[in-house]
TrEMBL record:
It comes from the Eukaryota. PANTHER family: GTP CYCLOHYDROLASE 1, GTP CYCLOHYDROLASE I. Residues 66-123, 125-221 form the GTP cyclohydrolase I domain. GTP cyclohydrolase 1 is the first enzyme in the biosynthetic pathway leading to folic acid. This is GTP cyclohydrolase 1. The lineage of its organism: Eukaryota, Fungi, Fungi incertae sedis, Chytridiomycota, Chytridiomycota incertae sedis.
Amino acid sequence: MNSSVLDLLPTPLKKTQSVDSTVSSRSALIRKLKQEDGQCWPSIGSKKRREESDAELEERLAKLSSSVEGLLLHIGEDPTREGLVKTPLRYAKALMDFTNGYEVNLEEIVNGAVFDEDHDEMLEVHIAYIPKGKVIGLSKLARIAEVFSRRLSVQERLTKQIALALEDTLDPIGVAVVIEATHMCMVMRGVGKVGASTVTSCMLGGFRDDPKTRDEFLRLIGK
């Protein structure tokens, strides 16, 4: 992966980088990623996984299962005992399902469901945007969010990825994405803060530049 791709991935802006220059360069970088791999923010091996044959998938599952067997052994379990014999394969299949966002192409998700319209009202969903001549099918918003959430990531990056994907697809006046999530690492171990949640947001265009528009969106979603 080249340095320009790596520069896109972290969530904070560089200290020497202005907001305007960052926004103007995003679409070009995203398009470059699509041209290189056909996906957005690919990881090493994601294209191979997307295109692998049934035999290659079986080999991948076998390797994952073997790794899970090793994990069970190292915590003091017997993976050959009754009740655990099929656990490694089940775990491997579940892991592949939970991370199938690596196999999905964003353009296939959108699939032409972008329509010409002549209004510019703000549309309120979990993901909000102010259209500039085009709107997208509502189900596609959920699918775009699902694609990126089924990849290994952090909440801050997930929030930005969804916003940038919409910005690149629709070229809207503004995009706003707010995510509230409970992190099990805070609930099940460590500090043990049951009920704690983390809220992240990414505001682009009109939502970043116009406080009234941003406040309207946050008020509508109760934030």
